[in-house]
Amino acid sequence: MFDWLSPPLQAEIEDLAQRFGPARFESIALESNSYLLRDAPRTSEVCMVIRRPSGRLITMKKTFYPDGAYRLPTGGVDAGESIRDALEREIQEETNLTTTLLRFLGALVYHTEVGPRFATFVLLVEETGGVLQVNDPGEQFGSISGDCG
User: Fold this and answer.
1) How much is the pLDDT for 92?
2) What is residue 139's predicted lDDT score, i.e. its pLDDT?
3) What pTM does this model have?
4) What range defines the domain where residue 52 resides?
5) H or E, element range at 74
6) Which residues partner with 47 through β-bridges?
7) Smallest Cα–Cα separation from 19: which of 7, 30, 11, 29?
């Protein structure tokens, strides 16, 4: 399912599933004009399921989302970057929190008629410290909330 990703990412997916799984893997068909395919150099992202001490989850709304649309924070895995490094970097940029990885929940692999094109790696982390705030002004956050759930 992941043979189109770099060998280091393939190995990391296996390691994450063994250490923090069991993980669920799903394949999703997309139209070739899907918004997920517009950033051609990017092949994957992390989806951060961040559980706060209250048990609630963090959700966010970007300025360009439709009214009432909130979602879990996500961020790209840069070329040559590991999933765990991307997770830590994105959590710092988008929430300013320190966390502990609890579970690798799984991955969604999006594909078109020509094959796999994009993967979302979903990881559950637990907040261990910090103050919830956005550190990257380029993120276009309309709001971030720690009260979903």
Assistant:
1) 95
2) 65
3) 0.86
4) 7-148
5) strand 74-76
6) 74, 122
7) 11
Please list the residues that pair with 108 across neighbouring strands: 26, 120
Q: Using CA atoms, how far apart are residues 112 and 28, in angstroms rounded to an integer?
A: 9
Q: Tokens in use for 113?
A: 């008629």
* Contact (Cβ atoms closer than 8 angstroms) between residue 60 and residue 73: yes
Rounded to whole angstroms, the Cα distance separating 99 from 127 reads: 4
Is the confidence at residue 124, as pLDDT, over 80?
yes
Where do we find the tokens 């979602």? 71
Instruction: For residue 74, give the CATH number of its domain.
Output: 3.90.79.10
Tokens of 111: 């594909």
**Residue 1 counted as domain residue:** no
Burial class (CB in 10 A: 0-12, 13-18, 19+), 90: buried
pLDDT at 1: 74
Q: How many domains does the chain have?
A: 1
Q: pLDDT, tens digit, for every residue of 9-63?
A: 999 999 999 999 899 999 888 876 655 555 556 789 999 999 999 999 999 887 7
- Tokens representing residue 149 in the block: 């759930």
